[in-house]
Amino acid sequence: MTYLLRRFAFLFLGLSLGLPLAACNQAQNTQPPPLEGAAIGGPFQLVDKAGKTVTWDQFKGRWRIVYFGYTYCPDACPMDVQALMQGFTKFEKAHGALAAKVQPIFISIDPARDTPQVVGEWTGAFGPRLLGLTGTQAQVDKAAKAFAVYYRKGTVTPDGGYLMDHTRIAYLMDPDGKPIAMLPVDKGPDAVATELAKWVQ
């Protein structure tokens, strides 16, 4: 076999072996989102810390992270939101341009106590990028129903205090408002950052 023939055979073999690898990588990058097609998300009308009306459609064209909780939560909500926002910050440092397209949102399920000011102060403790929303009970009910979120008021203590039992999920929604994945806040900031990097484009 001449040198040119051997060279051609080597190049052909290399290309043949490379094609399946390229196809494999492409398949990994285009795998369907875990929540694709799920009936999660929908229109709502709530208010921000200044009492200004905020609607779901205002975020059209942006990726969204949505978490429902309440500011008087003694442990679960603070831990979840801390992991969420620390993970988002890690993602932001590594992918600044992409992170600029993402809006993290916290929606209160306890509007009786979570006034706009209270929600604003609470979310502010986790960073300036987290948007806190609340509203009337009817508005919160509608938003929670749209996102398939369960919540229930617990037993009221003699001093008027109570806890809220609720779903603990951080949804990642695409720019069209469609559900993509649940962010693993229970696994810590690194896992959240990795999941964001996997889907946000």
Shape: globular
Question: Roughly what fraction of the amino acids lie in strands?
Answer: 15-25%
- How would you name the CATH homologous superfamily? Glutaredoxin
Radius of gyration: 22 Å
What would CATH call the architecture? 3-Layer(aba) Sandwich
Identify the notable features of this structure and list them briefly.
201 residues, 5-stranded mixed β-sheet, two-stranded antiparallel sheet, 19% strand, disordered N terminus
List the helices and strands and how they pair.
Elements (H helix, E strand, L loop, with lengths): L2 H27 L15 E3 L5 E3 L7 E7 L6 H19 L1 H4 L2 E7 L7 H9 L6 E3 L3 H10 L4 E3 L10 E3 L3 E4 L5 E5 L5 H11 L2
Parallel strand pairs: 3-4, 4-5
Antiparallel strand pairs: 1-2, 3-8, 6-7, 8-9
Helix pairs in contact: 2-6
Structural features, described:
The protein is built from six helices and nine strands; from the N terminus they run αβββααβαβαββββα. The longest helix has 27 residues, at 3-29. Helix 2 packs across helix 6 (189-199). The chain is α/β, with parallel strands linked by helices. The protein has helices spanning 3-29, 76-94, 96-99, 116-124, 137-146, 189-199; strands at residues 45-47, 53-55, 63-69, 102-108, 131-133, 151-153, 164-166, 170-173, 179-183. It is globular, with a radius of gyration of 22 Å. The protein has one domain (45-199): Glutaredoxin, CATH 3.40.30.10. A hairpin with a 5-residue loop joins strand 1 and strand 2. The protein starts with a helix and ends with a helix. The strands form three sheets. The chain has a five-stranded mixed β-sheet. It has a two-stranded antiparallel ribbon with strand order 1-2.
